[in-house]
Amino acid sequence: MTHTHSITCRPATPADWPAIAALLTQAELPLAGADEHLADFTLAISDDGALAGLAGLEIYGDVALLRSVAVAERGQGLGQALVREVIAAAQARGIRQIALLTTTAAGFFPRFGFRPVERSDIPEALHASREFQDACPASAVAMLADL
Fold it and tell me: CATH topology for 7-146?
């Protein structure tokens, strides 16, 4: 029997890092660099205070990297809601392109406007991210969305 929890979204704070790191580890997502960008991470907190999911942005000028999309329980639409929330926040800030790297979810992101691209097509500013430098394997699919 699954219980329906009400979910509240809020920005991450440094105090959230242990829970964030635990969820990313559970989801087999890289931790590298995430703690440097927590101010642009959106957390989904269930009514019992547990971290239900998260999605992060690394912002570099008018382009951003979507990273660390993870949910504690799949199949409840929370991941989609978080991605939409983060994309809306990026649009509100004048971000014109969002890129991502994924090893497992290339089929999840096209519904949000992402398309597979070559890594060389990703905006140069994003190559500064730890995800591009060393955290994501070369086999990861690069995807890009125009906002």
Answer: Aminopeptidase (3.40.630)
Strands 7-11 and 141-146: unpaired
Per residue in 38-69, pLDDT tens?
Answer: 999 999 999 999 999 999 999 999 999 999 99
From CA 61, how far away is CA 129, in angstroms rounded? 13
Record the pTM. 0.90
Angle at 65 between CA 62 and CA 68, to 5 degrees: 145
Q: In which order are the strands placed within the sheet that holds 63-71?
A: 7-11, 41-46, 51-60, 63-71, 97-102, 141-146, 115-117
How do residues 123-136 score in pLDDT, each as one tens digit? 999 988 988 888 77
Query: What does the alpha-carbon distance between residue 30 and residue 34 come to, in Å, rounded to a whole number?
Result: 8
